[in-house]
Amino acid sequence: MTSHANSSPGSSAPQPPSASAREERSARIAVFAFPAFILLGAILALFMPSPFLPLAEHISVMIAIIMLCMGLTLTLPDFTLVIRRPLPILVGVIAQFVIMPLGAILVAKLLGLNPMLAIGLLMLGSVPGGTTSNVVAYLARGDVALSVTMTSVSTLLSPLVTPIIMLLLAGEETPVNGTSMAWSLVQTVLLPVIGGLVIRVIFDRFVSLILPILPWLSILAIGGVVFPAVAKSSETLLSIGLIIIAAVIIHNLLGYAFGYGAAKVFGFSVPVARTTSIEVATQSAGLASGMSGKYWSAEAAIPGAVAAVWHNISGALFAFLMRRIDAKKGVAATSPQSHEDPSTVVT
Questions:
Q1: Cα distances (Å, whole numbers) of residue 18 to 6, 15, 21, 171
Q2: pLDDT at position 210, please?
Q3: Which of 85, 119, 141, 218 is spaced 20 to 30 Å from 271 by Cα?
Q4: Backbone angles phi, psi at 29, to 5 degrees
Q5: Which residue range is the domain that position 141 belongs to?
Q6: Of 208, 220, 78, residue with least CA distance to 156
Q7: 3 state SS of 329
């Protein structure tokens, strides 16, 4: 006899996942797949450097691709938040460009890093926020719209702010060509981001169709920055790897702690404080690695390469911790504010 249980009104047939559930699953895949891919590639580059060395010639192109993908995910309404909620954005961006550079100097002195590793860590602290922060803010139930705007503003300011920070803090033993660095950031960061935004405005329907592939294109491009940096410094990494990993982790944790504290000083809500914490702590590590390798040495690119893995691992851990805190407090698992599926935005 054929069973009709599945068609009965009281059956418990599985229902298709809701849109928010699909978004969250997609975001989780992006935030976990990224560090897994970078970690695996970095290990290969560490022990088998030769195949990855030719990629070093294309690092600037790879950075431009990363930033173009970021620009394509932006929309003009993302920037209206600057007018509607200027104080949280101002606090977040200033905190990022103050806390992370000073934190890098502190960590470098505490751990006794050599000049090249110290300058690489300072560059890591001086670059704009990484767009993986937008996914982490979503998973941590932060304010995603605010996260996107903070990242965008810090990125647009970076051609001016990053060279100034490096000029002021790098020290005499590691000279900085500020003008050249600013122009390089304009070419590899500002123009691609603005170009991507313009393309999004003009060809919104087409860009919307390709949004799902942008995170994966960004991940491949970041691999094209990080892997040759690891390959060129494989011998150095094998000898001093633990200390630079420790430096990146401590630097990142300082960003989370002081970023959250800065937000609470101004009385911001918990979602805004979480977002500020994430934005301050999460840097554009691929950009830091590429710029350090270009202006100093392969060794200076190591902190950014390590951070490309660690920042995403720590972001996943931060999101998990925030969700556990919410669960203990009985906070409903409502979807945070978002202008689109946040998994379409990856550093």
A1: 21, 9, 5, 54
A2: 83
A3: 218
A4: -60, -45
A5: 30-329+336-344
A6: 78
A7: helix
How far apart CA 5 and CA 18 sit, in angstroms, is: 24
In this model, does residue 132 exceed pLDDT 90?
no
- Answer whether residue 317 is part of any domain: yes
pLDDT of 32: 66
Number of domains in the chain: 1
Q: How far is CA 284 from the centre of its chain?
A: 5
Q: 10 Å Cβ neighbour count for 32?
A: 13
In-domain check, residue 295: yes
| Residues ≥6 apart with Cβ < 8 Å to 313 | 35
Buried b (16+ CB within 10 A) or exposed e, 123-156: bbbbbbbbbbbbbbbbbbbbbbbbbbbbbbbbbb
What's the CATH number where 157 sits?
1.20.1530.20
Whether residue 6 is contained in a domain is answered as no
SS3 label, residue 283: strand
Query: Would residue 321 count as lying in a domain?
Result: yes
> Could you tell me if 54 and 232 are in contact, meaning their C-beta atoms sit under 8 angstroms apart?
no
C-alpha closest to that of 303 among 37, 59, 122? 122
Separation between Cα atoms, residue 309 and residue 252, nearest integer Å: 12
Closest CA to 276 of 255, 301, 253, 254: 255
Q: What is the pLDDT of residues 28-75, one digit of tens each?
A: 566 567 777 878 888 898 889 888 888 888 888 888 888 888 788 777
Q: Which long-range contacts (CB under 8 A, 24 or more apart) does 173-177 make?
A: 173/115, 174/115, 174/116, 174/118, 174/119, 174/296, 176/295, 177/295
- Closest by CA to 62, choosing from 181, 211, 197, 225, is 225
